[in-house]
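Quick look at the format.
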Amino acid sequence: MNILVTGGLGVNGCWVTRELLEIGHNPIVFDIRPDFSLVSDISNDIEVVLGDVSDSAAVLRALKHHQIERICHLAAIYPDAADQNPVRGFQINASTTVQIMEAARIMEVDRVVFTSSIAALSPITPEYLGSGARPIAEDFPAYPSGGSVYGATKVASELMGLNYERLYGIKFVALRFATIYGPGKNAPRHGNINVVWNRIMEHALLGKPLRFDKGGDDSYDMTYSRDVAHSVVLGCLAQRPLHSVFHIGSGRSHTLREFVDSVKEIIPSAPLEVGPGQTEPTGLQGQLAANPGWLFDTSRAKTELGYEAQYLPREAVKDWLHWLERLNLEIVPSD
């Protein structure tokens, strides 16, 4: 099957591209930046169309020329950039989704998978926070009042995708992701979003001390990037699901201490320390402070897509090191 992957060279898209290729499909990557560092070992096996995803004519040409049957739409700009330029943020993250759906309608593409986010949700209420709290299912309100431009674009994209499905029968699959971590996800490349876990790995690999005085007991739904990619592939290829919106996470909570211990087990020389208690709301931990204690309910994704996370922190760290070596990736400090 010929499948267009927008953002297919990025930190999440690269794994979608790789998995589709491995299982015998033909991923056509549509990306604005010719950075092949995350696909260097397969760059000769994939076709890449360089272009701006907001250029609807270019997208239409790619769909027609490559006889695309399905689309995985991962191209986006991240929260900091969207807040700094709301017009461009909305254009790239929301208007482009509508253009992708319209292009799919014109070229008779039968399915579009859209990568959404927990940012689409309303503020998480107390009954979903803390140990033993109920997981967040897909019926949780999606209205991020006062949250971010990024969150608003995810909601707008979901709603327009659902309308294209209603009006034209194009199957629309929106995957809302929990916190993502994995190779390549650092501040210089990816913006200042969910990079704490990657910062921990950077310090471990560079032998730089990193200490969290508090926060070891806080738990998080953190999902390895290869699990994220697998959910996109499943969303693209599964028999037509009954629903259109799915929560994608790890299926269980992991504490900051658990992750640090996993890193130190695999990299014994890592100069990392983490204290007990709650996360500090400032500094590096400030990124974590807004996100502890909730867990996505992934039962719908398991039932309809066959999704189940494969990487606990220990397995993720081992896999991470494997790909750093295989791709000869440079560790670029974020600070």
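Next, a different chain entirely:
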Amino acid sequence: MIRLLALAGATAFSVSAASAADWDVSIPWGPTEFHTVNAQNFADAVAEATDGEVTMTVHPGGALGIRANESLRAVEDGAVQMAEFAAFQNVGDVPILGIESIPFLISDYGQLRKMHEIVRPTWEAELEKRNQKALYIVPWPSQNFFTKEPVETADDFDGVRMRTYDANTATMVQRLGMVPLQMNNTDIVPALATGKLDAVMTSGTTAAAQKYWEFLNHTYNTNHLWASNIMSVNLDAWNELTPEQQAAIEELAAKMEPDFWAVSEAEHGKRMQQLKDNGMTVQAPSADMLQSMQAATADMADEFADRVGPEAARAIEKFKAGN
């Protein structure tokens, strides 16, 4: 009887240990950026919903040494159990993740939701091939150009060294006469401080978090593309959870994602005001500037479809048909 009780106790302990998880979450963004705050709120909710059986430790600012454009591979390889990454920064691994960064394809949050409805199943299937599962996907706010000098016409772009995200944005700025310098968020401020960069494209959230007013003077709300972050978990780690734990986490992700979108939508106005309060000009691009940008990128949706393949072409065609 004693031996049987001891065996039962050991078995129960083994099952309990197998169903517990303590995951590290790599976040490239700083601790105060809203995506990082969202991630911490999600981690807290998961711990509560699973009675502490699944814990997630959020590491902001690339503290684990994983760069934004390395995050997808880090999750795939199990270097970290979870990571959040911008879709466009990982197009080298999954090219169709760049579809929302096609310049001037998507106008607003409403259209972005429609694009996600179309392309998200493809994104999720591609990520599953890379040994991971998307838990939630949340966009950055509207995009901007931040410059030292004022920009009124296309001629003002000539020779400007602009931070870019990916192949799409590099092509765009080259066509406008600028010099593209692709880099992750953490590299921007050092590049501005040393004079390597003259201008940056990003959201107001990042601009405020990195205090661009210390280096740049002008903000133009170009709204030239959209960028969303994916919170992804390694499938090997995921499959170690119990079905009940998986269901609880999936339910939380589905419930909290719309709230995270609402936070994103509120961010733009808040951060534009913060930039103004710190001395930056904030304005819409001039008609000439906007026309130049749109003309330079008019064929990039077709180029993307040709480069990425039929799945991208179908998604773009379906999106255009519905708008």
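The chain has two domains: 21-89+98-140+227-269, 143-225+273-321.

See the schema section for token definitions.
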